[in-house]
Predict the 3D structure of the following.
Amino acid sequence: MEGALVSYATGTAKAVLPKLAGLLEEEVRLLKGLRGEIQFMKDELESMTAFLIHLSEKRDYDTKKVRTWIKQVRELSYDIEDCIDKFKYRVDAPGRMRSFVRSLLSNCTPTPRMVTARHFIATEIQLLKIRTRDVNERRARYDVTISTSDDKSGAATIYSPEVHREMPGKEKSKSMGIFRFPFSLGTWKRGVERTTSLRTSQPELVGTEVPERGILNLLREQGTQLQAIAIVGSAGSGKSTLGMRAFQSAETAESFQCRASTTVSQTFNIKTILCDLTEQVGPPLPKKDLETKALEDKLRSNLKDKKYLIVLDDIWSISAWKSIQAALPDNNKGSRIIVTTRNKDVANSCCSPYPGSNIYEIKPLSEDDCRELFFRLVFRPNGTCPPELKRISNDIIRKCRGLPLAIVSIASLLASKPSKTRDEWQKILDRFGSELETNPMLESMRHILTLSYNDLPYHLKACALYFGVFPGAGSIRRKRMVRRWIAEGFVSEMVGQSVEDVAEGYFDELVGRSIIQPVEISLDSKVKSYAVHAMMLEVIVSLSIEENFVTIFGGQYMTMMRHNKARRLSLLPGSDDPSMVNTRSLSHVRSLTMFSDSKPPRVIPPLLRLLRVLDLEDCLCIKDAHLKNVYKLYHLKYLGLRNTGVSKLPKQIGELEFLETLDIRRTAIGDLPAGVVYLRSLKHILAGSTSSFLYGDGQSDWCKPVRLPCGVGDMTSLQTLAYVETKENADIGRLTQLRKLGIVSQREEGWEDLNKSLQNLSSCLRSLVLHNVGSKPSLESLKSISASAPSSLQSIDLNGRLGKLPPWISKLEMLSEVTLRNTRLGKDAIGELGKLQSLLYLRLYDGSYNERNLGISEGAFPSLKLLKVVDLVTIKMVKFNEGAAHKLEKLILCLKGTDKQEVDIQGMEYLGSLKEVELLGFDGPVDNVLAKRVTEAAGKHPSHPNIKMPRRGGTKDDQVVIPVTEAIEIDRI
């Protein structure tokens, strides 16, 4: 907890320093006489920030003494930033004249407005200067100090805060295997994850037989080279237990001449680790104190002629691994190293030096194993759950989401209760957050989960705490969270990287550290949505509330207003007093997030002048009237209105000059106000809808694009523009930062102008969606684009008649995703697409292909992982020749036979990487002939891919998955 507080306060203070620097550089004449005070605050904050960073890295401070001081630094930083933002709001004139007024400030006579603003900031800065001096003096007054001595002997405790992540696009070593168990991992029957040596006895396990056998098989693999096995998983997932089971196995004892194990942990003493390992594999060490180098030599000497097995449990950093690796010799005797870690980068580092090494990624417990473990612990001795407790038991088990540590901890808590009643258990489930914070029986679990958070570098602390804004959410889109981080100011540009790229790196690092869990992953391994485990989320919410990072109203958090200045506000369903948003006690709020079924205030109050993020996604109760004053939120950077009841935006929307993201997707908004073109900071316009395009449904209001006013070419910061219709397609060529463009139009004209624009976007555009949905939909003008067409395109989605593929598409070396509708292509087009070396996804929808047979020839589609053929009434046969699409993992088909011709599929046996076949029906059940033939082919396939199809009598989303291991009668499904 204290480590979290230090790093969070550090990040808060560092965020303010650039604003103070900017205040010194700008508005010079208006701030005459205040430069000294501002410079003083900046210098003091820099000193305090340096001290906080040093404090965070050393971790040997008296937390009780410094805790109050750290909180004061945090709140001071917040208030300084608030002062600067309020000053900017007061100085700027209303409306589109702001930038003009600012440009004249140094030359014009001070207006009453300027005089008032100067008086305000002068008073505020004087008070803040006094507070800054007092806070810094208080540190000296109460002797808030830390040790600065460094131990040169190597005996000191080591903590490495280094940040190491694999950059996107960097390939892992081809000699390294990654295995993800498709089955559950077990856990122990009593106790929690060990914090002592691995050599302690292991209790009874549940469901570990298969993964344990997998580890043992790797240990027995032939080969004389040293190899490593890295077991990766989140806190409490059973990594250490699995590693220890393999270590203690009788087979292991017979296979290795010597074995040793030790726990490394977050902080460790390298000499202690080396001594521990040395004494397990050799004679006792002399009583004299040996230096680190001597211990390394001794351990290497003891191991050099032996086939050994070393288990290193709970490694947190790459530097920790490297400090131990030097003492483990590769003696060509088939030795093995097992490491357990929460960090994928650490796992890669451990395995990369040794060809043939493997990474095991632990998956959550299966539902059946969760029940078995929970019932065995709670209802001893027979493990039988009474009928009246089955429903609440399932609710509790679902909250644990397959995490062994959580199941053991909660089950132990419930087993200790003298009475086992549904009401008692419901109370514990409803207030689990406070139970986790205060109940001694859950203290170990909280400690273990908090360790993962504390290990984060300070620049990731605020990003992780921000998950507390969504306390009851399931999966969340990656882009939504990343854009909110940027709007909050958590992310800064780095040399050679945009702020968006840096934010994406932050997200990838949190995934790699097992803080968040991917929910939806694309075939190119990009996380599209994520979730935070319920137990980790409870810890984060608790930290966020205690440190005044987030204030939550609604549900179990109704009384969570612990501070008089709310900084980030989340309104959950069940909040009885939405009018509280109007109170002046919330004038410091920087983000406001509402959830579905929350009771909204009458309007979004203009009082929230410091608001940067307004996220109302999925709140259908939000109407136009609620946004009456939204244009007055001067500092707003993120406006999320997705899936709300809004039908129009205020005409004055152009006054939000700092707005970066405007998300109006799946709303009834048809036109954007003319003033939107004045939003020169806007990076993302997310409009229209993609869901209705899947089956060509043109009747739904959601499929309509949003019409843009004239002047879009002036919005030169735009990176995303989709899905829209614009009167000036030629203007789009001026948007040289544009990465994603989605144009949907019923007009027959204007596409030639768009061609010219696309040629101007050659170096920046990554994704292109062009849909002509008019009465005579045609995109044939695309064929006229010259060789300077967007060469950097990675995704293309076309709807409209082409007849033939534009020749420039075959030259797109980076193209990984193609989606086609109504293009009326012939078999030559499939041949051209099959030559694209980087193509991962190919989706063919209604009208995209005119031939009866879809044949994939030998060598075609060398990288393809997904093929989707849906609603193509012309196709009666899909055929794969030997050597075609050899990396295809998923095949989705929606074909329908006729009285004269049945549908067929051939060559599935050649798809060696195939994992799943999904069958869809034309507004009804799957074609029986297709289903039977696919099932027969899958049954003969060497990998036995699963078949997924709609359940008979169910909805299109109600699907059954058939693991094909033998012939199955389709009529029984």
User: Anything to note?
Assistant: The mean pLDDT is 77. The chain has 25 helices and 33 strands. The longest helix spans residues 112-141. The domain at 550-686 is CATH 3.80.10.10 (Leucine-rich repeat, LRR (right-handed beta-alpha superhelix)).
